[in-house]
Write a structure and sequence with these properties.
The protein is of the alpha/beta class. The protein is built from ten helices and 16 strands. The longest helix is centred in the middle third of the chain and has 21 residues.
């Protein structure tokens, strides 16, 4: 896949380079060591025409995709790339190949129109966004100082200057196995796991009511969802082990530790009064350090000119927040003004029959090229 992008830049005579993750500083971190095959994986950094050493605006997209575990639910082959009914179908089409295509089309149009920007533009196509984010962290070693970054993710072409953060957690319980013909000799933790599940679900509903944001027009700005539940290991044994894993959203400005404390209190309250659980409490693990929420001020050029891009493209203003975690949080934490933008709808990401409308990609390209022209004229 990276060869295709290298060829795109090379065919136009534009400067392009690759950044192998092995050998970067982040590769030596605990996070980097968790990523496999770093010597075989590389970011691609292409420049609009060439790197002139000027202040740089960066367009960031990720080329990795999530695995397909449910191919039987797909109408078309997951990696067909088939174009039908006005859509491109296949894994990665909306997350985020469509956004990358829109950015490359926008830059190509500017080049063919002879536009010479007063700043440099780099397109960084990174790996590992879906896992640890080390691709974008490594890219900051290559381009640490930026005018701003446009992160390509499916926003339905809305301009996104803020996002809620998230924490992944796992709750584990240990009981005592017994033959199911004499279950009273065991300690069944499955009902206790169900109580915790119900309590966490109620916590999520409460947070959806009390933790809102005017720019996140979704049923919840801080969704709490359980992704996996497991109990027992043999049908003829009382479940002695059980666990669930999920995520909880974090509102912009909300402290990560406060959210951790709320989840812990919820789990403890769900098993209060249970003598066995008092002696054998549930274990709660935080599966990573958490993704903090982030926000970029409307006054920042990267936001203002993206807004201008929609206006110049003949579209009404549309500025929203999202609840999905992405590499934007890493960039904002590094002090870089950042927006998220891209064609397609998030509901198709990570799902069977992933797809993106061709007209949405074309609209995104028009918005991006107009935004770049707006920024260039004001520089």
């Amino acid at each position: 896949m990276s060869d295709t992008y290298v060829q795109f830049f090379g065919d136009r005579g534009w400067e392009v380079e690759t950044q192998v993750l092995a050998g970067t500083e982040v590769a030596e971190s605990d996070t980097g060591r968790a990523e496999p095959r770093l010597g075989d994986r590389a970011n691609v950094v292409g420049w609009y025409r060439r790197n002139r050493g000027r202040p740089t605006l960066v367009i960031n997209g990720h080329v990795d995709v999530v695995p397909v575990h449910d191919e039987h639910r797909w109408t078309r082959a997951p990696f067909s790339g088939e174009i039908a009914e006005g859509h491109v179908h296949g894994r990665g089409s909306v997350d985020t190949k469509g956004g990358i295509a829109a950015a490359l089309f926008a830059l190509d149009a500017c080049d063919r129109a002879g536009v010479d920007f007063p700043f440099d533009i780099a397109v960084e196509l990174v790996v590992a966004e879906e896992t640890t984010g080390v691709g974008t962290r490594a890219s900051l070693e290559r381009i640490p100082h930026r005018l701003g970054t446009i992160v390509l993710e499916p926003t339905d072409n809305a301009i996104v200057p803020l996002a809620s953060g998230l924490l992944f957690f796992t709750v584990s319980l240990s009981g005592r196995a017994a033959h199911t013909s004499v279950p009273w000799f065991g300690v069944d933790v499955a009902p206790r796991l169900i109580r915790i599940y119900q309590a966490l679900t109620a916590l999520g509903e409460e947070r959806a009511r009390t933790h809102t944001h005017p720019r996140i027009p979704l049923p919840s700005a801080v969704p709490l969802a359980i992704g996996t539940l497991q109990a027992g290991g043999w049908r003829a044994s009382v479940p002695a082990e059980a666990k669930l894993s999920g995520r909880v959203g974090v509102l912009p400005g909300e402290d990560l530790q406060d959210v951790r404390d709320a989840v812990v209190a919820c789990v403890r309250e769900a098993t209060a009064g249970d003598e066995y659980m008092a002696e054998n409490p549930a274990e709660i693990h935080w599966d990573h350090e958490g993704l903090p929420s982030w926000q970029t001020a409307d006054e920042e050029p990267v936001v203002r000119h993206m807004m201008a891009g929609r206006e110049r493209a003949g579209l009404p203003p549309r500025v929203e927040g999202i609840t999905a975690g992405c590499d934007a949080g890493t960039l904002v934490a590094a002090g870089i003004p950042t927006v998220v933008f891209g064609p397609g709808h998030m509901r198709y990401a990570h799902s069977p029959d992933e797809r993106i409308a061709v007209e949405d990609v074309a609209a995104a390209a028009a918005i991006l090229s107009a935004a770049l022209l707006s920024w260039g004229e004001s520089a």
